[in-house]
Amino acid sequence: MKRVVVTGLGALTPIGNTVKEYWEGLSSGKSGAAPITRFDTTHFRTKFACEVKGFDPLAFMDRREVGRNDLYCQYALAAASECVTDSGMNLETVDKNRIGVIWSSGIGGLITLEEQYGQFIKGDGVPRYSPFFIPKMISDMGAGLISIRYGFRGPNFCTVSACSSSSHGFIDAYNYIRLGKANAVLTGGSEAVVTHSAIGGFNAMKALSERNDSPETASRPFDKNRDGFVLGEGAGAVMLEELEHALSRGAKIYAEVVGGGATADAYHITAGHPEGLGVMLALEETLREANLQPADVDYINLHATSTPVGDPAEANAIIRMFGDHLDKLHVSGTKSMTGHLLGAAGAIEAVASVLALHNNTVPPTINIEERDDAIDARLNVTANTAVQKDINVVVSNTFGFGGHNAIIAMKRYTE
């Protein structure tokens, strides 16, 4: 099997529109939550979200292209642009037939769907849909647009597994390169669903926080008074590359990807297994493939959505797996700052994990005021303040509705 390394990053998030800004927000404990600006929330129980701020699509595409692409695709192209530039890849000389794009979105063009169908039902019954309606809406268009823009003709598709989508895409990209089917794959995910139907739908499930009087403190994994997740939006991108290919062009190397585990809870359509069974299986598979022991792991970026049921189940799985080594392990839930980007969550959290490794810094879990007694006190959740420590191995957890679990492991690159 070939070795796979990370050579480029891109990020567009509620706490920063570049990788540099994103890391500054993470390491300083910045919250991206604020009242929703996209629509009138008068009749909604939740009135806030983690929106991207100050995004200008015209910095990445012309006006006509903006009109032809849903916001989630605009986000995808923005993050991909930063990632390709950061990778230092020479697009004039690289073999584009051997570069793929595996890009994820849990929902796709929900804004477009709402707009187009809304116009129809408010009209005279005559269908006047845009010819771009379907291309703007479908979840695979992010992958297609990125490949078209850069001429990348390798493996090209979209993984969809709810909130674990982009971590599954990351694992697929890793495996395509390991198996020699591509020299590099730009992987990641984007989501843009701060919409009537998403807020309304998640409210109906009682999944969202309703802390409207203090949005910035609403996402609070492991806190006793957490009441649901905060919806986020944005995009994250990672350039994965075969080691020898990266070395041959003198690329900088952020980290080496060493394992990925994918399992199912086989339990419930929205709730994770209460004992974290699927999480345990995915952790075991990830560490086995990476040839790592629990004692080798320094930091875990948890799924940690800030829901009453999900946080303890994930914490309990970590305790069972790493119980004898908790004295050296830090974990954190960066959704406390970014909110939950659904299908793009794994992508921005993979970027966060790479940056934690690169900077020897554990980003915090913010908004912990009164720790939940159900969370084992031995688990160091990096409460409220970032921690400096030597980090050689990172793990990133991502789980999705339907019982989908995807976990990746990366380590500091050594020859």
Structure, described:
With 415 residues, the chain is of the alpha/beta class. The protein folds into two domains: 4-248, 3-Layer(aba) Sandwich (Peroxisomal Thiolase, Chain A, domain 1); 257-411, Thiolase/Chalcone synthase (Peroxisomal Thiolase, Chain A, domain 1). It is built from 13 helices and 14 strands. The strands form three sheets. The protein has a ten-stranded mixed β-sheet, with helices on both faces. Helix 11 (310-322) links the parallel strand 9 and strand 10. The longest helix has 17 residues, at 71-87. The radius of gyration is 20 Å and the shape is globular. The model has no long low-confidence stretch (mean pLDDT 97).
Keywords:
about 425 residues; alpha/beta; Peroxisomal Thiolase, Chain A, domain 1; 2 domains; ten-stranded mixed sheet; two-stranded antiparallel ribbon; 13 helices; 14 strands; about 20% strand; globular
Mean pLDDT: 97
- Rg calculated over all Cα atoms: 20 Å
**Describe the biggest sheet?**
10 strands, mixed
Integer count of domains = 2
| Strand tally | 14
Order of helices and strands: EHEEHHEHHHEHEHEHEHEHEHHEEEE
How do the strands and helices of this protein lay out in sequence?
Layout: E1 4-12, H1 19-28, E2 34-35, E3 48-49, H2 63-68, H3 71-87, E4 99-104, H4 110-121, H5 133-137, H6 141-150, E5 156-157, H7 165-178, E6 184-191, H8 196-204, E7 234-242, H9 243-248, E8 255-264, H10 277-290, E9 299-301, H11 310-322, E10 330-332, H12 335-338, H13 345-359, E11 361-362, E12 387-388, E13 393-400, E14 404-411
Parallel strand pairs: 4-5, 4-6, 9-10, 9-13
Antiparallel strand pairs: 1-7, 1-8, 2-3, 6-7, 8-14, 11-12, 13-14
